[in-house]
Amino acid sequence: MLFDLVLYLLAGATAGLLGGLLGIGGGLLIVAALSFTLPALGVPPSEVMHVSVATSLAGIVLTAASSTTAQLRRKAVMLPTLWRLAPGLVLGGFIGAHLAQLMSGPVLRWVIAGFCLFMAWRMAFGHQHEVRAEHVPRSSWLLPAGLGIGAVSAIVGIGGGSLTVPLLVSLGVKPVRAVATSAAAGLVIALASSLSYMLALHAPALPLPRGALGYVFLPAAAATALASMVTAPLGVRLAHRLSGPALKRVFAAFLLVVGVLIVSGG
Questions:
Q1: 3-state percent helix, strand, coil for the chain, nearest multiple of 5
Q2: Taking a C-beta distance cutoff of 8 angstroms, is the pair 33, 7 a contact?
Q3: Would you state the pLDDT for residue 1?
């Protein structure tokens, strides 16, 4: 248990740093860490990835809250854009959580790993969009885009930064502002999707460890969240000092490593 706790704290601290730096809650890193430790706690192999995803999202709530607070203080969050995304993010979070519960453990593992590797490639080699300072997206499809982002995020256990940041940058938002807004969007996604996993009706019948609420393993969620809250403000400060291309390279390397870790955990 001590080793597990240390791993959760380290994963949470790293997730918080990445949450502030890249606009993500570090959920994929936490999913990877949990997928290695949960089997030793008696979680059935068929449910390991589901519990990992749900627990990651619950931890992201505090991680994203910490990052969002820091970004709001810097007045970097584009609130009009966030309000246009939010309804879709909430609905998508509930839908995605339900779809993930219908998937088998191996299928969910490969979906998550494939997502990591695809996004790493996209961030490293994707098209560079023109960036206009202080541009506020007014696209009519921000609502359906939010629906898709929320659903995918709930399935793979993330706050959606790997989707929201590229979307906003493609609409002409400066990378630092896109990161700030995606952190706030991640809070919305994590709240909706983790609530859905907690309320899963069939989860209480599964042989999950003590401390589980629905699919959420509360001790791990608390440990990762508390550690992440300490390091998230540091990530925000670093984000405002690094250039856009530097942020993208860090993001791509992070996703590549985590994708490999998740595959190897199978």
A1: 75, 0, 20
A2: yes
A3: 66
Q: Which residue has the tokens 């999950």?
A: 208
Residue 85: its pLDDT value, please?
94
Q: Structure pTM? A: 0.84
For the chain, which residues make up each domain, given as ranges? 2-264
Pick from 180, 182, 173: nearest CA to 77: 180
How many Å apart are CA 42 and CA 51, to the nearest integer?
A: 12
**Cα–Cα distance for residue pair 159/250, rounded to 1 Å:** 17
Beta-carbon contacts of 127 under 8 Å, excluding residues fewer than 6 positions away, are: none
Tell me the sheet residues that pair with 217.
Answer: 212
Listed in sequence order, the residues at least 6 apart from 88 whose beta carbon sits closer than 8 Å to its beta carbon are 142, 143, 144, 145, 146, 147, 148, 149, 150
Angle subtended at Cα 80 by Cα 77 and Cα 83, rounded to the nearest 5 degrees: 95
pLDDT higher for 45 or 262? 45
